[in-house]
Amino acid sequence: MRCLLDTHGLIWWWARYPKLLGTSAYAALNDPLNDIFVSAATGWEVATKNRTHGIDLPVKVEDFEAAVADEGFITLDVTMSHAVHAGNYDLPHRDPFDRLLAAQAELEGLTLLTCDKAFRDFPCKVLWD
User: Phi then psi for 119, rounded to 5 degrees?
Assistant: First the structure.
């Protein structure tokens, strides 16, 4: 399976909080046959929230890219088609990070690992529980 890990899932994974991860998401993350992607948009979101809210992160923002690679996860760059697709969703959900992750999951055929119920409105496959 090819999965895109949402921001909260990545932070919980790094913090080693398996009880916060859904059973299916945890299994997907631990299956060596799965490809786990982390969006560049997640790096943007983490850096933004760290700067504006001072969130406690298990990884320094400056080490984010290396930490993703150290987990064996694959960085997914944001393309123009991802950005345009995210902007064209005719949905009330306005979070730009969520819209971009949904667009990436949909266009790249990835299963989004997230507990965020807002993604139910987007046309992408979601897995968590």
Answer: -75, -10
